[in-house]
Amino acid sequence: LIHSIGRQIAAKSQDIDYIFHPRSVAVAGVSNEQENLVGFTLLKPLMDFGVVSKIYPLNPKGGEYEGLKIHHGLTEIPGPVDHVIVGIPASLTPQLMRECVAKGVKAVTLFTSGFSEIQSRDAKRLEDEVLEIARQGGIRILGPNCMGIYCPKTGLTFDTGFSKESGPVGFIAQSGGNSITGIKVANARGIHFSKVISYGNACDLNECDLLEYLAHDPETEIIIAYIEGVKDGRRFSRVLKETVETKPVIIFKGGLGEAGARSTASHTGSLAGSDIIWDGIIRQAGAIRVYSVDEMVDVALAFLHMPAPKGRNIAVIGAGGGASVLAADDCERAGLRVPPLPPEIQSKLTKFTPEVGSFFKNPVDSQWIVHNPEQFADATIKIVSDWEGIDFIILHTALEMFVTQYLDLKQTMLDEIIDGFLESAQKSPKPTAVTFHPMVSERLQQAVNSKQQDFFRAGIPVYPSLWSAANAIAKFVQYHNSSRNGH
Amino acid sequence: LIHSIGRQIAAKSQDIDYIFHPRSVAVAGVSNEQENLVGFTLLKPLMDFGVVSKIYPLNPKGGEYEGLKIHHGLTEIPGPVDHVIVGIPASLTPQLMRECVAKGVKAVTLFTSGFSEIQSRDAKRLEDEVLEIARQGGIRILGPNCMGIYCPKTGLTFDTGFSKESGPVGFIAQSGGNSITGIKVANARGIHFSKVISYGNACDLNECDLLEYLAHDPETEIIIAYIEGVKDGRRFSRVLKETVETKPVIIFKGGLGEAGARSTASHTGSLAGSDIIWDGIIRQAGAIRVYSVDEMVDVALAFLHMPAPKGRNIAVIGAGGGASVLAADDCERAGLRVPPLPPEIQSKLTKFTPEVGSFFKNPVDSQWIVHNPEQFADATIKIVSDWEGIDFIILHTALEMFVTQYLDLKQTMLDEIIDGFLESAQKSPKPTAVTFHPMVSERLQQAVNSKQQDFFRAGIPVYPSLWSAANAIAKFVQYHNSSRNGH
Question: Are A393 and A381 in contact (CB under 8 A)?
Answer without folding.
Answer: yes
